[in-house]
Structure formats: C-alpha cells, structure tokens
Amino acid sequence: MPASLIDNHLSFQPAAEILAARAKDVPTPPGAEHARAAIAEAKASLRSIKPRNMAPFIAQAWGLSPRGARRSVLIAAGMDADRWESPIHSFTEEERIELRAATSAAIRVYERLLNAI
Predict the structure, then answer these.
(1) How many other C-beta atoms lie within 10 A of the C-beta of residue 73?
(2) CB-based contacts of 96: which residues, under 8 Å, 6+ apart?
(3) What global pTM score does this model have?
(4) Which residues, including other chains, have CB under 8 Å from residue 25's CB and lie 6 or more apart?
C-alpha cells in the first residue's frame, strides 16, 4: 500500500520552526545601525585599494546594470533602446561599428567621471 504524503505536510510540523525560518528572511529595515556600520566598513576597505588598472572596476560597475548600460549605448549610437536584449550578431556590421564607437565614448565619459570623483 503506498504511503500517504499528507503525514509530511508542513501543517503537521510545529509552527515555531516555520516562523523561525520565516524570520530569517525578513529584510533589514532602513536606517538599521548594524547595516550602516557594515556599509561604512565596506567603503573604508574599498578606499584602501589603490589599483593601477581601473578597467576591471569600470567593467564591474557597468556590469551591475546591464539594461541601463546597454540602453544608454544604444541611444548614443542612434538606435532603438528596446533592442538592449538583442544578441550582438543580430546587428548589421554598420550598427556594430556605431555600437563600438558609442561604447568607447561612454567608457571615456565614465572614466572622466570616475577620475573626477
């Protein structure tokens, strides 16, 4: 005779375990002191880094928001920003040339901004 799965249902477990697991997933409230301390510590450790080559950090910063970066480059290249999810091979050779030029210009602007900060 097959075993019933109803015996293992969550409703038959003590609620304390379920509530404890749920409490772990509660997001940190805004302005929490321990969160601010952790952010300050992370910023301090980043300030101590003096890299020679900023390219990895620039690439990482651009990688944080691919949608925004790609849309900005497409707009700068004079193309439709809604094509931001399109693979590179879907663009014509002329469009790829425009994209490379717009990407280079955007990186130069970003580097100037980064140097100013």
Answers:
(1) 23
(2) 88
(3) 0.41
(4) none
Q: For residue 103, which amino acid is it?
A: T
Counting beta carbons within 10 angstroms of the beta carbon of residue 77, is it exposed (0 to 12), middle (13 to 18) or buried (19 or more)?
buried
Return d(Cα 113, Cα 117) in angstroms, integer.
6
The pLDDT tens digits along the chain (117 residues) read: 455 556 666 667 777 777 777 777 777 777 788 888 888 888 777 766 665 666 665 555 555 566 777 877 888 888 888 888 888 888 889 988 888 888 888 888 878 877 877
The alpha-helical segments, DSSP class H, found in 1-117 are 15-24, 33-47, 55-63, 66-76, 93-116
